[in-house]
């Protein structure tokens, strides 16, 4: 089975992938947009300019055709260009003037059979068929039916430039007898090509700028993520003391804060575990020493036949074993994450049950336990809350002097229910109040120091809390719990 790469390697790969994805996310849509937009704009501009050129050339052809006499044009025969007849010269002069004034490349007049009657700029003799007309058969059919038209296809001249031809009909007594053709250069393609190259260059610059922005953005995201990665790796290696630095970016800042909360919780849990282990080791050592001592004395007494003394040693050993058992049970109760089994519980019943369970201890110490509870219903785990209250009342009974009184009260306050356990004992010294809820911290010789921490843990599991209120002459522990919302009427 192959071993997966370490976490640090996977995180670095993820950051590299993030940079690459940001770069692609920035550049690819922009590249597609520029390419599609540039192509569409170029095609639209070319189409518009081609149409405008065809319209202009056909207008020049129509203006020229209006000055050409169809009857005289038909009198021009092959050879007239060689002999230079008057009709041919007049037609050539007209075409030359139009060419010079309009700047077109070529003008020629043909009959309906496509034979040249005059050609300025092309040099074809009279009577010759114009080969270019085969390319524009559809356009010529419209012209010979009496309309103006322009060639749909650009063609290349001998100079390498692109040209277009406009046509207009020549009439005699209302009948179309020929056509004037005007060839003009598509000179706009030069600037259009330069514009296209400029657009491509600008697009390249824009892509470069966006690429730089993408790289800087990726680095800006990667730096705080790398810091978070370093913090996560430190926590994974067991370093729970180094805080996670805050981050200015809102989303990453939330991650940093949550990671810091997790680190703090792990550090607190680790500290508690260390305290618990130290406390267990300390608490177990004493009864184990007593058991070892009394078992040795017991062995000697049994060998000596002193059975009466042996019975006392057995009782002491059993007492130490019971103490050990209580330590283990308290330790397991505090360390175990117990799921809550919530159900409606009457608050006065909880307080009464906890007091009844400690009635024997209170009587032995001549302490009176007084319970006053307002009616309320709690959505809680009754057995766990009873255990928490037993610990609180037990501490109060043990802290009270003989003949003292412990008051256990419960009342609704706002959206919660507050249970107070008050005694008139010596109280908790101010120097010890901060540590009263630490696991295994106790001022009693045989205390495990887990009662109050366990009670607070149960309270917080229910969404409440447990705190100490120390006033002159009294010590009060307040346990607050949320109340079940009253059902709304119809």
Describe this structure in words.
By secondary structure, the chain is an alpha+beta fold. The chain has three domains: 15-190, Beta-Lactamase; 250-335, Helix Hairpins (Orthogonal Bundle), CATH 1.10.287; 343-482, Histidine kinase-like ATPase, C-terminal domain (Heat Shock Protein 90, 2-Layer Sandwich). Helices cover 55% and strands 17% of the residues. Strands 1, 2, 3, 4, 5 and 6 form a six-stranded antiparallel β-sheet that branches. Helix 6 runs parallel beside helix 7 (250-304), helix 9 (347-357) crosses helix 11 and helix 11 runs antiparallel to helix 12 (451-461). 24% of the residues are buried.
Please, what is the average pLDDT? Answer: 79
What is the total tally of β strands?
Answer: 13
How many strands, which pairing sense, and closed or not: the largest β-sheet?
6 strands, antiparallel
User: In the CATH hierarchy, what is the superfamily of the largest domain?
Assistant: PAS domain
* CATH-scheme architecture of the largest domain: 2-Layer Sandwich
Count up the domains: 3
> Unreliable segments (pLDDT under 50, ≥5 consecutive)?
1-5
Report the CATH C-level class of the largest domain.
Alpha Beta
State the shape.
rod-shaped
Question: Which helices and strands occur, and which strands form pairs?
Answer:
Elements: H1 7-65, H2 70-74, H3 80-83, H4 86-102, E1 106-111, E2 116-120, H5 137-144, E3 149-150, E4 155-156, E5 162-172, E6 175-185, H6 189-236, H7 250-304, H8 307-335, E7 343-346, H9 347-357, H10 359-364, E8 368-373, E9 377-380, H11 382-399, E10 405-413, E11 416-423, H12 451-461, E12 465-471, E13 474-482
Parallel strand pairs: 8-10
Antiparallel strand pairs: 1-2, 1-6, 3-5, 4-5, 5-6, 7-9, 10-11, 11-13, 12-13
């Amino acid at each position: 089975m192959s071993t997966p790469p370490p976490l640090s390697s996977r995180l670095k790969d993820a950051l590299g992938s993030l940079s690459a994805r940001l770069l692609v996310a920035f550049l690819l849509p922009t590249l597609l947009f520029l390419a599609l937009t540039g192509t569409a704009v170029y095609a639209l501009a070319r189409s518009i300019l081609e149409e405008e050129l065809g319209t202009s050339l056909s207008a020049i052809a129509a203006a020229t055709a209006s000055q050409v006499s169809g009857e005289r044009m038909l009198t021009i025969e092959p050879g007239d260009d060689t002999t230079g007849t008057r009709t041919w010269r007049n037609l050539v002069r007209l075409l030359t003037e139009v060419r010079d004034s309009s700047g077109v490349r070529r003008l020629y007049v043909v009959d309906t059979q496509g034979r040249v009657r005059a050609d300025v700029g092309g040099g074809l003799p009279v009577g010759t068929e114009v080969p270019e007309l085969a390319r524009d058969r559809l356009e010529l059919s419209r012209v010979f039916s009496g309309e103006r038209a322009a060639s749909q296809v650009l063609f290349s001249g001998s100079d390498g430039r692109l040209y277009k031809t406009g046509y207009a009909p020549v009439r005699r007594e209302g009948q179309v007898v020929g056509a004037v053709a005007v060839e003009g250069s598509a000179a706009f393609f030069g600037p259009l090509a330069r514009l296209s190259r400029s657009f491509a260059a600008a697009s390249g610059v824009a892509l470069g700028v966006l690429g730089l922005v993408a790289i800087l953005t990726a680095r800006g995201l990667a730096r705080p993520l790398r810091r978070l990665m370093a913090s996560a790796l430190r926590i994974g290696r067991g370093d729970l003391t180094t805080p996670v630095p805050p981050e200015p970016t809102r989303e990453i800042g939330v991650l940093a804060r949550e990671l810091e909360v997790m680190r703090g919780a792990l550090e607190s849990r680790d500290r508690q575990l260390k305290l618990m282990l130290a406390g267990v080791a300390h608490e177990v050592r004493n009864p184990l020493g007593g058991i070892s001592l009394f078992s040795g004395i017991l062995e000697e007494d049994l060998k000596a036949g002193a059975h009466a003394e042996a019975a006392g040693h057995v009782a002491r050993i059993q007492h130490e074993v019971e103490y050990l058992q209580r330590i283990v049970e308290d330790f397991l109760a505090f360390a175990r994450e117990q799921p809550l089994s919530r159900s409606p519980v009457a608050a006065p019943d909880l307080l009464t049950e906890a007091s009844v369970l400690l009635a024997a201890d209170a009587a032995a110490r001549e302490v009176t336990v007084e319970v006053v509870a307002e009616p309320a219903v709690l959505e809680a785990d009754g057995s766990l809350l009873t255990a928490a209250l037993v610990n609180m009342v037990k501490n109060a009974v043990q802290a009270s002097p003989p003949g003292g009184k412990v008051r256990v009260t419960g009342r609704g306050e706002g959206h919660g229910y507050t249970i107070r356990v008050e005694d008139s004992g010596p109280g908790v010294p101010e120097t010890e109040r901060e540590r009263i809820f630490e696991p295994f911290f106790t001022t009693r010789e045989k205390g495990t120091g887990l009662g109050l921490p366990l009670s607070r843990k149960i309270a917080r599991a229910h969404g409440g809390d447990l705190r100490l209120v120390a006033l002159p002459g009294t010590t009060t522990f307040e346990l607050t719990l949320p109340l079940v919302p009253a059902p709304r009427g119809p």
